[in-house]
């Protein structure tokens, strides 16, 4: 599959994407655990069907030491016993934040309160920005049919 566009061939798009990628790097420096960030990014990408981001976040998580069983079970996290309660809260918030068109009320008060039990305000802010960023990047990749499979861990860091 060939991509419809090369974002970095256009100066304006290239600059915009560099800013998006720098936002992602800043989030990595937050106190929200890296494992949680990668699991959330992977789950959002699965929901949206973004192969490029599934490739990237699976490989980044594995390079950071994430167990393959957890990566393989992200799509079925509700039934899997390998995730902490905090990770479950983050995954639920990420799903509701991604499926806003399906859930007329967006993220429910119950889901928000559960996440707030496990994460402080700074971590919640990181989680909200991460959910928004991943949905943006997923759409950019899907619309332009960016191919997956060649990502190398650390490629954009």
From TrEMBL:
Stretches that traverse the bilayer: none
Q: Which Pfam families match?
A: CMD
Q: Taking every annotated instance into account, which residue ranges of this chain make up the domain Carboxymuconolactone decarboxylase-like?
A: 19-95
Gene3D superfamilies (alphabetical): AhpD-like
Superkingdom of origin: Bacteria
Instruction: Fetch the InterPro entries from UniProt.
Output: AhpD-like (IPR029032), AhpD_core (IPR004675), CMD-like (IPR003779)
NCBIfam families, per database record: ahpD_dom
Return the PANTHER family for the record: 4-CARBOXYMUCONOLACTONE DECARBOXYLASE FAMILY PROTEIN (AFU_ORTHOLOGUE AFUA_6G11590) (PTHR34846), BLL7811 PROTEIN (PTHR34846:SF7)
List the protein's name. Carboxymuconolactone decarboxylase family protein
What organism is the protein native to? Rugosimonospora acidiphila
